[in-house]
Write a structure and sequence with these properties.
The complex is a heterodimer of chains A (about 300) and B (about 450).
Chain A (H helix, E strand, L loop, with lengths): L7 H4 L6 H36 L2 E3 L5 E3 L3 H8 L1 H32 L7 H13 L2 H12 L5 H8 L14 H26 L3 H9 L4 H12 L1 H16 L3 H6 L11 H11 L3 H26 L6
Antiparallel strand pairs in A: 1-2
Helix pairs in contact in A: 2-14, 3-14, 4-8, 4-11, 4-13, 5-8, 8-11, 11-14, 13-14
Chain B lengths: L49 E7 L2 H14 L3 E7 L2 H14 L6 E5 L3 H5 L8 H8 L8 E4 L2 E5 L7 E5 H6 L10 H14 L7 E2 L3 H14 L15 H20 L2 E2 L6 H8 L5 E4 L1 H11 L7 E5 L17 E5 L6 H13 L2 H8 L25 H6 L11 H16 L5 H17 L3
Parallel strand pairs in B: 1-2, 1-3, 7-8
Antiparallel strand pairs in B: 3-11, 4-5, 6-9, 6-10
Classes of the chains: A mainly alpha (about 300), B alpha/beta (about 450).
């Protein structure tokens, strides 16, 4: 009967000391400690603190009074909050529907093998995101000005009508969406472009040999393989869209006729203009729940079955 | 919430930029008491030492404090922290809530006074300011809360029309015709017609400034949102006036003869340089000071036109746009200096104060030579004197932050044609009732 020689590896027992085992077990946690040292007091505690404030009436300089769910029911029933939430949702949808395809088009254009000055284009598209949001909003305020703005000057020059970019309730939300898209489209395009570069060129070559045209290659190769990156872009842009504040705050203060009042502006007004920290905190908690819920839905809806 | 008992004056604008909220006064009847003795600060200037920290929302007042108050108290170190009006408001809120980094004295936008004063963190100054009370042209010029005196308003900010008379003349418009609003609107229509809709001399802003501008029209017609004790003012005549003002506002928007902007963005002044913006309605601090600052090349062309009347037989009165005051914190580290600061602007610094705010409620101020000075930028016009001749009616401030966020959108809805004037009044009454019911 043949004897099977024992593996040399099996002959050497693993050397494990108690000290080394302990080191291995704790190492990951040690790496996490710095994060939690910062996150627990400045992240988690403040978030929990904010939620707690939602349950109290706190007049500055006065006593704190527990009011149960009163602030939450007030906010949920407040027609102004409903308007703000609806505006946020509307602008969120408009923003995503315009932003993501546009970023995709730019990314695909940047990815063309024969594109000259690729780096220059990348920098140009990326530049707006590096600019201060407030500065951008103020520059757009100048562009949008009804009488002295560049846009209306151009429209008047070509014989077109003067548009009330920020004064007309039906136009103002779109003016703000345009600003936001202009500012971030390059940023998301660069992310998508990075994703495009990770798709093997052999797939495109094989598809071309099989007779697939550009659109078919985009639909059957680019889109499916870019799905994880696209999902990231959509989720990241969506969260930013829910938090819309600075642009309408600077440009319209939520007007005209509350057409650009957003949920975060409502929170700001309750907390820092009416000095009602309880209602502001309650509204913030409700918004946070809405963002989490919509994000989960988005991920479930957009994630393919094979990712599940 | 308690009432802010100020009648003859109002609110500051300061929504964006914290630009000078401003100054002007009521020029109402000078009822007795002008000879009442005013107390001096308890200590002589040389004995006031240490440091005094002041949070300020007006860079012009910061300069005035440096040049006058600091000079008068050489042994005192004055720390001036200059904010924009809104920034100061938020910073003050945080400081009051956390009880940290509070100054000795802070600048307060009058329309928001109750929000701060109800925190019970400000020093009542009955003993110091009561002797001065009768020297103001109205008892309501004193900032009170729960019956206690806390301060006095600087620059309540009554409004007028500030126009480039020369360019209007070149466009065939004589500002002498601006005696009634009907005549003024007709002139604005002619200007718009002749310029293909490019030129105007009226503004109809949006945002909080827009609501406060709307309010000046309502105020100038003796309108009031609230009764003195903070109930919605539902008097039939008052609501009729409100409806007429809403209709005026709607008609103004429909006619397209007003610039939908305010004086904060540079485009406003650029439009003035390009000859598209030939005027605006505003208070003294912005109307005089900012115009001079931004349009030096148009010196001599501008004039102040007092608020047009609402009809040939209507009273000659205006509305007001804003006001501010300084208040001392209870925990002020240097109370002697703080008290000296509060009386300084009545005793010695009135002229400097007038240079910033234009006009004062303080009766002795009218005796200052500055009231008689002609201003070269305005073609030698005695702007302060002319403005002080037009009084404004009493007005009750309650929950002004909520007024801006609740009634402001109704004003914009009306202007956008989404609701009629009558509907706007109904919505306003409901909003007032809601605001009143939410007080806790």
């Amino acid at each position: 009967m043949a004897r099977v020689a024992a593996s040399p590896i099996a002959l050497v027992p693993p050397v494990r000391t108690r000290k080394r085992t302990l080191y291995s077990a704790w190492t990951p946690y040690l790496f996490l400690v710095p994060f939690f040292v910062i996150f627990i007091p400045f992240g988690a505690a403040t978030v929990l603190g904010a939620v707690a404030i939602g349950f109290v009436y706190w007049e500055i300089g006065g006593d704190i009074e527990f009011v149960g769910l009163q602030n939450f029911t007030f906010v949920l029933r407040d027609s102004v909050f409903q308007i703000a939430l609806w505006n946020t949702l509307r602008m969120f949808l408009g923003y995503i529907v315009i932003l993501v395809p546009l970023a995709m088009v730019i990314a695909v254009a940047l990815n063309r093998p024969n594109l000259a000055c690729r780096r220059t284009f990348q920098v140009v598209y990326f530049l707006p995101i590096t600019m201060s949001l407030i500065v951008v909003a103020m520059v757009f305020d100048l562009l949008y000005d009804e009488r002295a703005g560049v846009l209306n000057a151009f429209l008047t020059w070509i014989g077109g009508p003067r548009i009330r970019w920020l004064e007309d309730p039906s136009v103002a939300p779109w003016s703000i969406i345009a600003l936001r898209v202009w500012r971030v489209v390059g940023y998301y395009a660069v992310i998508l472009y990075a994703g495009l570069q990770s798709i093997p060129s052999e797939l495109y070559e094989a598809a071309a040999i099989d007779g697939a045209n550009g659109l078919q290659r985009f639909r059957h190769i680019t889109l499916p393989l870019l799905r994880p990156v696209t999902l990231f872009v959509i989720v990241a842009a969506s969260i930013a869209a829910w938090e819309l504040f600075a642009e309408p705050y600077v440009l319209t203060e939520g007007g005209p006729a509350r057409s650009t009042l957003t949920a975060v502006m409502y929170i700001y007004r309750q907390a820092f203009l009416s000095f009602d920290l309880g209602r502001g905190a309650a509204a913030a908690a409700i918004l946070a729940v809405a963002i989490i819920a919509v994000t989960i839905l988005q991920v479930r809806f957009l994630r393919g079955d094979h990712d599940a | 919430m308690d009432q802010i008992s100020r009648r003859s004056f109002l609110v500051a604008s300061a929504a964006l930029g914290g630009a000078a909220l401003a100054g002007c006064n009521p020029a109402g009847p000078t009822t007795g008491g002008a000879s009442a003795p005013a107390p001096a600060p308890t200590k002589a200037p040389a004995d006031i030492t240490g440091e005094l920290t002041i949070w300020n929302g007006s860079s012009q007042m910061t300069n005035a404090i440096k040049q006058t108050f600091q000079a008068a108290y050489p042994n005192l170190k004055v720390n001036l922290v200059d904010f924009g009006g809104n920034d100061l408001q938020e910073k003050l809120l945080v400081a009051l809530a956390t009880q940290t980094d509070l100054p000795d004295i802070t600048w307060v936008i009058a329309r928001r006074a109750a929000i701060y004063l109800r925190t019970n963190q400000f020093l009542e100054m009955d003993d110091l300011l009561k002797p001065y009370e009768s020297r103001f042209d109205s008892p309501s010029a004193i900032v009170r809360h729960r019956g206690r005196i806390y301060s006095y308003v600087q620059g309540p900010g009554n409004v007028a029309l500030w126009v480039n008379a020369e360019q209007l003349r070149q466009n065939g418009i004589d500002i002498a015709t601006f005696t009634t609003w009907d005549a003024t609107i007709e002139a604005a229509k002619k200007l718009a017609r002749d310029s293909g809709g490019q030129k105007t001399f009226l503004i109809q802003p949006l945002r909080a400034i827009g609501f406060n501008t709307f309010n000046t029209f309502f105020h100038s017609r003796s309108g009031n949102w609230w009764t003195e004790d903070g109930q919605p003012y539902k008097d039939g005549r008052n609501l009729q006036t409100l409806q007429e003002v809403f209709q005026f506002w709607i008609d103004l928007k429909r006619a397209g003869i007003a610039y939908e902007n305010d004086w904060v963005p540079p485009t406003f002044w650029q439009a003035a340089r390009e000859g598209k913006n030939l005027g605006y309605q505003m208070n003294f601090a912005v109307g005089a000071n900012n115009t001079v600052q931004n349009l030096p090349e148009q010196s001599g062309q501008w004039r102040m036109v007092t608020w047009p009347k609402w009809g040939p037989n209507a009273p000659n009165q205006t509305g007001a746009f804003g006001g501010v005051f300084y208040a001392v914190l209870k925990n002020a580290k240097n109370l002697d200096a703080a008290r000296a600061f509060m009386t300084f602007w009545l005793e010695k610094g009135m002229e400097e104060q007038i240079k910033v705010w234009g006009i004062s409620n303080y009766k002795p101020a009218t005796e200052l030579p500055i009231y008689q000075e002609g201003r070269p930028f305005f073609g030698g016009q005695k702007v302060q004197l002319d403005m002080s001749r037009v009084p404004y009616p009493p007005f009750n401030y309650w929950d002004w932050d909520k007024m801006e966020s609740e009634i402001g959108p109704i004003v914009e809805q009306a202007a956008a044609g989404q609701v009629t004037a009558a509907q706007a009044v109904d919505l306003s009454v409901k909003a007032l009732e809601k605001i009143a019911s939410e007080r806790r």
